[in-house]
Amino acid sequence: SGALLLTESGLLSERVRGDKSVRKVYQVRVRDAWRGDELERLASGTLQLLSETEPCLPALFEPLSDRTARVTLAEGRYHQLRRMFAALGNRVVGIHRVAIGCVTLGALQPGHWRLLTERELQALVHGNGDEQPSIESLAAQAQQLNDKPEWL
Q1: What does DSSP say about strands 60-63 and 68-73: parallel, antiparallel, or unpaired?
Q2: How much is the pTM?
Q3: What are the residue ranges in the chain where pLDDT is below 70?
């Protein structure tokens, strides 16, 4: 559930699907409580998915409760979130996309839609004004969070 981007523009579609600088943010709910190593393992850039030859790019993991987290991805592999958490020994029971690049749901209610603003469109197409941190800074931020286990 969550944010969808509908377009007739091949350029915009390819940019959102194929450009790793357009990150997607999800709220993920899992079956079992967090073990405590998820942040480090997802941020490491070494997590290998079953039947894949390349490891996943670093992902930012922000726990929201004992079974819910916000996860930011820089790529979009087939069922990636479900497969990532399976590799960590957990099962995803719910996924909600809250942002695609600089486009967020905000107060948009389920079943409703809106047009992109000119700023959002330009940021997605040209990559300027996106104001997203780099995936490297997300990994560094994740490492800093891992050094502060207050969330456990």
Answers
A1: antiparallel
A2: 0.81
A3: 128-152
